[in-house]
Amino acid sequence: MELDHYQFFQSLEPESFEKVRSDAKHVSLGVGTFLYYQGDINQGILFLNKGSVKVFLHSDEIGKGEITLYYITPGEQCLVNTLSTISQTPATASAIVDESIEGWLVPASTIRWLIDNSPAYRNFKLSFCAERLTQVMHLVEELRFKRMDQRLLNWLYVQGRDTIRTTHEQIALILGTSREVISRILKNLEKEGIVTVGRGWIKVCENPTCQ
Questions:
Q1: Of 130 and 152, which is predicted with more confidence?
Q2: Which of 44, 113, 131, 182 is the most exposed place for a label (fewest CB within 10 A)?
Q3: Which region, left, alpha or beta, applies to residue 172 given φ > 0 means left and ψ of -120 to 50 means alpha?
Q4: Same structural domain for residues 99 and 137?
């Protein structure tokens, strides 16, 4: 896919678009590849055309598991990747390829040039950062204050996809409970027509029932 097929770049000023075109590097990575680890300093921002990336927090303490913050899908951006690249500070989370990806990596020097010279890019970044930060804050609130069934449902919704590929055990680690509790809640949600559950995947229903 060509760079100008990425919808955002079509809104850039001609000079800005040519700058990105000359500096961006095409990337293609398989499932399980880490884009960056918690603590790394990112040297570019990924513009995704295909696939998905999981961004998550993890603990060094045994048994603490991880918390998935969000998924990046085509046309979206990563808040952690953006802030680390622009400020040249350590990433506050890790990112791993969840579904094989293709896209474009724009170097940090080009990003800084865009911030200085492109009103369209600045507006895009401000809007994106505000939206993504709101999503993360909602997730933090749900994990801290809501009861487990509501926490699970809200976690599913915040992933931003109809079908989430995960296991009951993985969700239990993320939410700090047992696999049995997650399985029981999902069974109840399925009876209510809110989700459909399969082996290694969960589908969030748009209608009262998605059987």
A1: 152
A2: 131
A3: alpha
A4: yes
* Total count of domains within the chain: 2
The enclosing domain of 170 has a CATH number of: 1.10.10.10
- Predicted confidence at residue 180, as pLDDT, reads 83
CB atoms within 10 A of CB 144: 8
What is the C-alpha separation between 26 and 113, in angstroms, rounded? 19
Cβ(96)–Cβ(53) under 8 Å? yes
Q: Which domain holds residue 155?
A: 147-204
- Residues 131, 151, single domain; the answer is no
In angstroms, the CA 148 to CA 169 distance is: 15
pLDDT digits (tens, 9 = 90+) for 30-73: 999 999 999 999 999 999 989 999 998 876 544 456 778 888 88
Give the integer Cα–Cα distance in Å for 49 and 26: 10
Q: Which of 142, 161, 180 lies at the terminal end of a domain, its last residue?
A: 142
Dihedrals phi, psi of 73, to nearest 5 degrees: -120, 170
Handedness of CA 159, 161, 165, 169 (dihedral sign): positive
Domain presence at residue 101: yes
How far, in Å, CA of 63 to CA of 199, rounded?
A: 24
| pTM exceeds 0.85, yes or no | no
User: Taking 70 as the threshold, does the pLDDT of residue 178 lie above it?
Assistant: yes
